[in-house]
Amino acid sequence: MKWAWAAADIYTELNDNAQESFGLSILEAMAHELPVVVSDWGFHREIIEDDKNGLLIPTVGPVPGLTNEFALLSSLSLLDYKSHVGLASQFVSVNVAQCAQAYSKLVADSTKRTELGRNAKMTVGAKFSGPNIIRQYQYLLSELAKLRKNAEVSFAPENKSIASYPTRLDTSIAFADYATSVLSPTSHLRLDSSKDEAASLLAALEPLPLAAIAKSMLLPPEEMRTVLNLLENKDSSTVSDLTQHFNSDKGKELLLSILWLSKMGIISIN
């Protein structure tokens, strides 16, 4: 493995799912003085300071509760863990354009690669060496002890939580703060290419197994193309703008479709 690290110029990891939340392999790459390009996802932002010791790529996730159907399917044993995680990740978008820009920047600038790699190695030594990790555990245990000592006795509220299936928690709730941002009515959308190019890419994706995983959760193909038509020749439209062109019963499918189209690099969300 050490030869693989030695041969590498850049390390990248674009996590978008609940399975990958810490980033141990990112630390391994940083320890080998590699510049890293990683998704702004969960604990990654506690490891990486953007443009200082690596490059963070923004992510967009669903509003909490949007994928609660996945939790229901899991609770009924109709969706196993691996499929649940894989399906949920279809609706977390990593900014494709910014990712491409990050790679281009590092490929063209050896000085920047060296700078980020050097800072990355220093970060690992300063924050994630064995003694420092033990000290952080000790601090955490001390803080938890203080909280328990000073806590008042309380009871769970009577109102129902948004988490309907606590044994199979919806990942959009459990990991609500992992993405850089969540899709909202004011999120701005635009095509990443011409409408014809976008439609061709969409058509090419439709028969692939990757698309089939999410197919039942998305708008039908003709309505997906309607989304592309509505975004044509516009610098930017908001999610709210698009919802006005669809029946209210299509709301969830539309939001999931927007996230999926962004994940596939067909549209951008800002």
Describe this structure in words.
The protein has 270 residues and is mainly alpha-helical. The chain folds into two domains: 2-131, Rossmann fold; 185-269, no CATH class. Helices cover 51% and strands 10% of the residues. The chain has 14 helices and nine strands. The strands form three sheets. A three-stranded parallel β-sheet has the order 1-2-3, with helices on both faces. A three-stranded mixed β-sheet has the order 5-4-6. Strands 8-7-9 form a three-stranded antiparallel β-sheet. Helix 3 links the parallel strand 2 and strand 3. Helix 10 (195-205) runs antiparallel to helix 12 (221-231). It is globular, with a radius of gyration of 21 Å.
Structure in a nutshell:
With 270 residues, the protein is mainly alpha-helical. It has two domains: 2-131, Rossmann fold; 185-269, no CATH class. The protein is 51% helix and 10% strand.
Helix segment count?
14
State Rg: 21 Å
What order do the SSEs take from the amino end to the carboxyl end, as H and E? HEHEHEEHHEHHHHEEHHHEHHE
Number of domains: 2
Mean pLDDT: 91
CATH superfamily membership of the largest domain, which one?
Glycogen Phosphorylase B
Describe the sheet with the most strands: 3 strands, parallel
* Proportion of residues in helical segments: 40-55%
What class would the helix/strand composition place it in?
A: mainly alpha
CATH architect. name of the largest domain: 3-Layer(aba) Sandwich
The level-1 CATH class of the largest domain: Alpha Beta
What general form does the structure show? globular
| Major sheet: arrangement of strands | 1-2-3
CATH topology of the largest domain: Rossmann fold
Distance between the termini: 38 Å
